[in-house]
């Protein structure tokens, strides 16, 4: 029977220890630390955003249709037409004679053509009215709405546009599913800046005033919403100067990126 040399015993013990250690610990590691928990996602500053529709849709996207109808007059006509739309809304609101905003838009169209001494044929009239049902969304609109929804923010409109105008444009842009509600001031027979128009947001969302941000396109609309008491963000798409009035929006930018950061409370 062979006998192990006494000096081999400590050597074998050391080899066994090394092998066992290698099985327990990966090469080059001491002890694996538990993974750090992911930082908690901060809650949005507000629960909902109520949009004027022109924050989302480019009001000037009717210019090509107008230019086709009245060559060389597209931009000028469009600006005058839009101004008359709002003016008729204001006048009807003051005298309490509400009408569907699509009808208001058509009345403004007819007046503008007459004022500019342009021949508004039935075909041109139909084509130009159709342009207000097929507005182009701003390039940043859909992605910004998705970011807000992903953060749990509810999204509605508070717009003078009629329900037909709201739905047709959202469907055309394929963004209808990004809204919790397409809310028209027509439901209570008002136009902005009537306080009762802005109050629709609280009524339909079932939220407090300070839980809602109103996103305005026009300076006058920002003034109306702020005067009502909403936290107001002015998306100043056309780079206009602020209105010289006694209430200012809480914040402003020329695109929706600033609005999203404001609502979510991100830098």
Oligomer: single chain
Strand order of the largest sheet: 2-1-3-4-5
SS-derived structural category:
alpha/beta
Total helical segments: 11
Helix content: 40-55%
GO molecular function, one term: hydrolase activity, acting on acid halide bonds, in C-halide compounds
InterPro entries: 2-HAD, HAD-like_sf, HAD-SF_hydro_IA, HAD_sf, PGP-like_dom2, S-2-haloacid_dehalogenase
Keywords: Hydrolase
Family: Belongs to the HAD-like hydrolase superfamily. S-2-haloalkanoic acid dehalogenase family.
Describe the structure.
The protein has 267 residues and is an alpha/beta fold. The protein has two domains: 139 residues, 3-Layer(aba) Sandwich (Rossmann fold); 72 residues, DNA polymerase, domain 1. The protein is built from eleven helices and five strands. The chain has a five-stranded parallel β-sheet with strand order 2-1-3-4-5, with helices on both faces. The longest helix is centred in the N-terminal third of the chain and has 21 residues. It is globular, with a radius of gyration of 31 Å. The relative contact order is 0.14. The N terminus is likely disordered. Belongs to the HAD-like hydrolase superfamily. S-2-haloalkanoic acid dehalogenase family.
């Amino acid at each position: 029977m062979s006998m192990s040399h006494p000096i081999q015993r400590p050597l074998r013990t050391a080899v066994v220890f090394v092998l066992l250690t290698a099985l327990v610990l990966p090469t080059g590691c001491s002890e694996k630390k538990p993974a750090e928990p992911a930082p908690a996602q901060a809650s949005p500053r507000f629960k909902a955003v109520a949009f004027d529709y022109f924050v989302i849709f480019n009001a000037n996207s009717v210019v090509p249709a107008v230019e086709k109808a009245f060559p060389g007059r597209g931009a000028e006509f469009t600006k005058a037409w839009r101004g008359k739309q709002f003016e008729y809304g204001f006048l009807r609101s003051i005298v309490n004679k509400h009408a569907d905003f699509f009808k208001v838009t058509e009345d403004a169209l007819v007046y503008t053509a007459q004022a500019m001494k342009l021949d508004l044929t039935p075909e041109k009239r139909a084509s130009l009215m159709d342009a207000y049902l097929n507005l182009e969304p701003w390039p940043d609109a859909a992605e910004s709405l998705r970011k807000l929804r992903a953060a749990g923010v509810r999204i509605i409109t508070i717009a003078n546009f009629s329900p037909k105008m709201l739905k047709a444009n959202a469907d055309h842009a394929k963004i209808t599913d990004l809204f919790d509600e397409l809310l028209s001031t027509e439901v209570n027979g008002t136009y902005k800046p009537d306080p009762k128009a802005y109050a629709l947001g609280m009524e339909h969302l079932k939220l407090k005033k300070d839980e809602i941000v109103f996103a305005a396109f026009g300076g006058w609309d920002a003034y109306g919403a702020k005067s009502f008491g909403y936290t107001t963000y002015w998306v100043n798409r056309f780079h206009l100067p602020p209105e010289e009035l006694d209430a200012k929006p809480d914040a402003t930018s020329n695109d929706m990126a600033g609005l999203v950061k404001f609502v979510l409370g991100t830098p």
